[in-house]
Amino acid sequence: MPIPLSQPPQTDAAASPARSSGFGTTIFDVPGAAAEPVPAAGASSLFDVCHVGVVLRALLFVHAVVAVGVLFSAGSAAGWLRLFAAGSGIALPGVLMWLLMACALKQVLGALPAAGQSAAAAALGAACGALGAALGSLLTGDLVSDAMATDAAHLGLAFAAAVAGAALAGALFLWLALRAQALLPADTTARLAELQSRIRPHFLFNTLNTALALVRLDPARAEGVLEDLAELFRVAISDSREAVTLAEEVELAQRYLAIEQIRFGSRLNVVWELDPDAGRARVPPLLLQPLVENAVRHGVEPGDVGGTVRIRTQVRLGRAVLSIANSVPQAPSRPGSGIALRNVRERLRLMHDVAAQFDTQLEHGVFRVQIVVPL
Fold it and tell me: How far is CA 153 from CA 89, 110, 148, in A?
């Protein structure tokens, strides 16, 4: 049987950002709580190019430069295609090697001063350009046979490729620096939204009331409730920007739902369908709990008969798929501010770029949030 709880007055989320839906470290209204430091932009390396979106943009940029560059030497469309194919045969392996080496050495290169990072990017680009010319000559075959007729031509092509590689690497590094500066406001906004949307005040009061009601009836269960609440707060007030595993997020959501299960009793039906292999995926911290909390708040709390929350993880095509679905009651809940959904979407974009997907769908009385992240 659910334990009857006293409900404190709920404030308007739009009027008070510190009391919006989801988690929030400002729930105690402690002076100075909103002054939690926001991490600096330099917390991650500019050479962190290990993302599909960065790789695709780099390849498109370099090939666009090659396509425009050969226009000045091509006398016809057929000549342009021939030169573009030869240039792409050199540029493709060169830019891929630069990206792979920058990704592998991102911590080392990121520790250098600003001038050293620029020089390292250019030097790495020159080396990869020269190697790309050597590999490109093997890939393109007779397309560059005329230019490679002599040893001097070999050296000349390698030198030109090294210079071009250094210049393109410098341009790529400049773009990465500008990209990091452009993402800083979004990162700060997402971080502040995270701080303001962690634990709702009435969830705290409900949990404490639940523990108080259980102290005499079932002390062991009351202790378990307080342990779950302590773990939720430990994660909520931690100032970590490091990614966590999906398995850790699932464990945190299980603690939250264990508390809510005592509150709602048979009104809350939770279904877990978990794939252990999907738990290896890396996600931003506090990703799953706000979504589960929204599912309870809008799918279970408003209805007299309660509802069902279904959490599913699986591996599909080498990616981890997370789904949170909740039944929608006939009497809809009060519309929320949407902070939790926007916050999750923004943090996924900042972490995984185009490699992550975030979709919401309302169909046949079921609201579903689906997240896809790389493994």
Answer: 17, 36, 5
